[in-house]
Design a protein that fits this description.
The chain has about 425 residues and is of the alpha/beta class. The chain is built from nine helices and 23 strands. A seven-stranded mixed beta sheet has the order 9-15-10-11-12-13-14. Strands 3-2-1-7-21 form a five-stranded parallel beta sheet, covered by helices on one side. Strands 4-5-6 form a three-stranded antiparallel beta sheet, with no helix packed on it.
Length: about 425
């Protein structure tokens, strides 16, 4: 797949979108790109706002960042290979510092000149092509301030909109009838609203860890129960049994039903609650995709098909999804995914047949189910058996590209993960290099 200079559309100016733009900007004779960003600045998820629900532009608030958020990853794991995080930042930066880092990154590589801010993509449509596997794409976008609508044609599209915006609520009987405060962690911002209340957290991932620290000083009682499955990736229940959490925090196996202002646990215990906060992950959402794109989202919007290696359309090889997976390396993963995409576009990496790619994708999914994972784990890489570095190594091996992330980043992530599973409240007390 080679030829003249290609026009590329990048949807989203968060970390993945900026990384994609930076790598394309290094090849100005081969590619010219435009970035479509709904917000007024770069950063995506990392742009904090007190707002929840509908934003000023009339669309749902994108950011899931809460006021106290400090990164779960050390800066040595998070920083981009070609742009260091400030030495003045702590080992675990705040969300404000990460947003500033992304602003500085965009300025350093002069990326903002090609970004259309306050511009939301409303439609992505595949155009007829002589080479069916290499179609062009029509991108329709709307300026949310002026209401001006534009339509442009591109040779290649990179979808970089992240996967932390559409809340996934657990399937608990009676949950919608709860008369107290019910929200997803996507809409959590500050602890003051829960002063003196009995609060239940549903979930067992990193967000639960942060909300325990944020809420336990102000609430009367904090009950934590598993949400979407029986996964124990951080061993939070075991840590609670060892007495690592504050005294007003209590863990239970599962909430089996909700009625009015009470919750019923697996053993039949009835517990009153003033608020339920669901830390149960997110769904994939691409409302701009036209049917001609040939993308389906299954399993309650948690499995995107047909994507080879979780990023490449198996039928149309000019459409890529960057950073789609649940992966602890997703902040920097574009530095592996985009070089692989460029090798495909350059004709230097031959893909298997569509049939073989679909088979490998389906085999990967079936393997996950056989391992005991759930259907919504179709794109997850945060388990001992399927960890984040494993996916990175898979991309590196298949594409024959350099591991620009480096062994130190993978080793640092493994050490950090092991410490979180041992004592999540002290894991960030260490220095990681």
């Amino acid at each position: 797949m080679s030829g003249s200079k290609r026009k590329v559309a990048i949807i989203g100016a968060g970390p993945s979108g900026l990384n994609t733009a930076r790598l394309l900007s290094a090849r100005p004779t081969d590619y010219e790109y435009e970035v479509f960003e709904r917000g007024h600045c770069v950063g995506g998820l990392w742009v904090y706002t007190d707002k929840t629900g509908i934003d000023d532009d009339g669309y749902p608030v994108h950011s899931s960042v809460y006021r106290s958020l400090v990164t779960i990853l050390s800066k040595s794991v998070m920083e981009f290979p070609d742009f260091k995080l400030s030495d003045d930042y702590p080992t675990f930066p705040t969300h404000e510092q990460i947003h500033q880092y992304l602003e500085d990154y965009a300025d350093h590589f002069n990326l903002k000149r090609n970004i259309h801010f306050n511009t939301i993509v409303t439609n992505l449509k595949r155009l007829p092509a002589k080479e069916p596997q290499c179609p062009k794409w029509s991108v329709t976008a709307k300026n949310t301030r002026t209401a001006e609508i534009t339509e442009k044609t591109f040779d290649v599209v990179f979808v970089c909109v992240g996967h932390y915006a559409k809340s996934n609520f657990p399937d608990i009987p009676g949950l919608k009838s709860f008369t107290g405060t019910l929200l997803h962690s996507h809409n959590y911002r500050k602890p003051e609203a829960f002063l003196g209340k009995k609060v239940t957290l549903v979930g067992d991932g990193p967000t639960v860890v942060d909300l325990i620290s944020d809420l336990s000083p102000v609430v009367a009682e904090l009950i934590v129960c598993r949400g979407r499955s029986d996964e124990v990736r951080l061993n939070l229940y075991g840590q609670w049994e060892k007495g690592f959490f504050p005294k007003n925090v209590r863990f239970i196996e599962r909430v089996t039903s909700v009625a009015s202002d009470t919750l019923v646990s697996l053993d039949g215990t009835v517990m009153p609650a003033d608020a339920i906060i669901c830390c149960t992950g997110y769904k994939h959402s691409y409302p701009f995709l036209d049917k001609s794109c040939g993308i389906t989202i299954e399993n309650n919007d948690t499995r995107v098909r047909p994507l080879f290696k979780h990023m490449i359309h198996t039928k149309y090889h000019t459409l890529f999804f960057i950073g789609l997976m649940e992966n602890y390396l997703d902040f920097t993963l574009a530095y592996l995914q985009v070089p692989m995409a460029l090798k495909i576009l350059d004709g230097k990496l031959k893909l298997p047949s569509e049939r073989d790619m679909n088979k490998e994708t389906d085999d990967d999914y079936e393997k996950r189910l056989e391992m005991g994972l759930k259907p919504f784990h179709a794109h997850s890489f945060y388990f001992d058996e399927l960890d984040s570095s494993m996916y990175a190594r898979e991309i590196i091996s298949f594409a024959g590209i350099e591991d620009v992330l480096g062994a130190a980043k993978h080793d640092g992530l493994a050490l950090l993960y092991s410490r979180f599973k041992t004592n999540c409240l002290t894991a960030r007390n260490f220095t990681y290099t």
